[in-house]
């Protein structure tokens, strides 16, 4: 009888733990996972590193010292632990690699380390020459996204999503000025853009929207937009105005450089960030939703407009970084099928975020970054909406997922920060209020009745 009761208790405990692990991964990790993982890590560190091929033969001096204390065999030397830390998502261990090991060796062994220490994943980040950080996650942090409490900040730094190593994925416009976001239908592109808009809305920047699907994606955020184009005609005019603004800013930059050259104390600025705050123009982020719409052309007149828009986009992508105009381009695809100019424009967009896509689009988005990243993007499961592969020109990539935010939440943040819409006379004509779009889309009219066909 006692045995049956004990067995019942054991099964109930195991069931409770399994349920708790699924429902409350953070609490489970802190209560059970963290102490267990520490215990396992500290007690098996040396032997695990040797078993995973991450230890080197000892130096002659060390071997001699071992022999002097009566050790017959010289033990291999694992990387020295520099720093240990725990967090809400996992463990962090900083290692100094001994001569003969390189970060790629540790990366290659990450899957073996993960199994040895019983953690969800081990990510290896190179911090400097010979120093790596092991970021171990105790559970799948992308299942229920919670952004870290302490986020990186800076003049044009925007946290957008969570990386699979538990750190924040940020868009740093001064480091990576232009980016491309790709994804199939219902893969999470709009939620990604929403996170961007919501975080950019709080900064002193001008936001410009180009949404040629009638503005369905961007009209809700009109209160915070300095300009909005909802069809191709408006987009063409808006891009002309943006190129005009870029030229005007270059003229200002040159003027400031001339003054600086004349006065020996002044530093010569190479971009707007080197200018004193009182003359520095406000940064502009141009958000293009569904870029393929801009590349469409049905008639000869359309074709001219399309070529003008594409040429303007390429000009902005090639030169506008120095004057604080940044491009954030989004679409379902961006291959050669879009025609002339697509490949040139794409090559200028160094930030890449690719949601679930087919093999061809993954190649387009990540092929020039890394073949592993391309494979990872095609492997994103259909039920992992919002998960994407983020890569940059340095060849680094990681899985990311945005927090799920609604249109209403984003629109509320935009309304609350409407006072931050800067004064930009060049874009006045394109302001949503000038077009009567500030209050959201107009009421839809009645649906047309289907024409009755022959009985
Ligand atoms: N990060 C996320 N976390 C959880 N769910 C998400 C996330 N991103 C998107 N989703 C879910 O997927 C749905 C589709 O996302 P979204 O509208 O962003 O896709 P999309 O790629 O823009 O689609 P479309 O191309 O059809 O406009 C959302 O309504 C939301 O329920």
From TrEMBL:
Q: Which residues bind ATP?
A: 183-190
Q: Which Pfam families match?
A: FtsK_SpoIIIE (PF01580)
* Stretches the record annotates as Disordered: 425-455
Q: Quick check: keyword Transferase in the entry?
A: no
Which domain of life, per UniProt? Answer: Bacteria
Q: Which InterPro entries match?
A: FtsK/SpoIIIE/SftA, FtsK_dom, P-loop_NTPase
What the entry lists under Gene3D superfamilies is as follows: P-loop containing nucleotide triphosphate hydrolases (3.40.50.300)
Domain FtsK positions: 166-364
Q: What is this protein called?
A: DNA segregation ATPase FtsK/SpoIIIE, S-DNA-T family
Species for this entry: Actinacidiphila glaucinigra
């Amino acid at each position: 009888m006692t045995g049956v009761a004990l067995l019942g208790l054991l099964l109930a405990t195991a069931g409770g733990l399994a349920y708790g692990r699924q429902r409350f991964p953070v609490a489970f990790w802190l209560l059970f996972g963290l102490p267990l993982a520490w215990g396992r890590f500290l007690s098996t560190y040396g032997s695990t590193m040797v078993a995973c091929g991450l230890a080197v033969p000892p130096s002659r001096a060390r071997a001699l010292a071992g022999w002097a204390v009566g050790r017959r065999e010289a033990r291999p030397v694992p990387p020295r632990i520099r720093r240990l830390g725990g967090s809400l998502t996992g463990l962090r261990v900083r290692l100094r690699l001994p001569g003969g090991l390189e970060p790629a060796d540790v990366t290659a062994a990450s899957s073996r380390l993960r199994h040895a220490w019983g953690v969800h994943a081990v990510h290896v980040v190179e911090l400097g020459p010979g120093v790596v950080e092991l970021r171990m996650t105790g559970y799948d942090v992308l299942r229920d996204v919670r952004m870290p409490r302490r986020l990186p900040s800076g003049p044009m730094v925007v946290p957008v999503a969570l990386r699979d190593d538990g750190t924040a994925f940020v868009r740093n416009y001064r480091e990576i000025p232009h980016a491309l976001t790709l994804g199939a239908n219902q893969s999470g592109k709009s939620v990604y853009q929403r996170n961007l808009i919501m975080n950019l809305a709080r900064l002193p920047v001008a936001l410009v929207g180009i949404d040629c699907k009638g503005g369905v994606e961007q009209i809700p955020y009109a209160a915070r937009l300095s300009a909005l184009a909802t069809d191709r005609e408006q987009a063409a005019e808006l891009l002309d105005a943006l190129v005009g603004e870029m030229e005007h800013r270059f003229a200002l930059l040159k003027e400031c450089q001339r003054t600086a050259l004349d006065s020996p104390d002044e530093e010569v600025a190479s971009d707007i960030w080197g200018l004193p705050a009182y003359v520095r123009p406000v940064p502009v982020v141009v958000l293009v939703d569904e870029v393929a719409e801009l590349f469409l052309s049905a008639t000869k007149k359309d074709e001219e407009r399309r070529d003008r828009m594409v040429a303007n986009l390429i000009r902005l992508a090639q030169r506008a970084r120095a004057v604080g105009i940044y491009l954030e381009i989004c679409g379902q695809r961006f291959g050669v099928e879009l025609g002339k100019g697509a490949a040139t424009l794409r090559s200028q967009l160094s930030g890449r975020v690719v949601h679930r896509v087919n093999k061809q689009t993954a190649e387009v988005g990540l092929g020039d970054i890394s073949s592993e990243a391309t494979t990872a993007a095609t492997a994103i499961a259909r039920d992992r909406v919002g998960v994407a592969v983020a890569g940059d020109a340095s060849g680094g990539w990681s899985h990311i997922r945005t927090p799920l935010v609604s249109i209403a939440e984003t629109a509320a943040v935009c309304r609350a920060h409407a006072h931050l819409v800067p004064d930009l006379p060049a874009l006045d004509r394109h302001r949503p209020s000038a077009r009567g779009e500030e209050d959201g889309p107009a009421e839809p009219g009645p649906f047309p009745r289907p024409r009755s066909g022959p009985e």
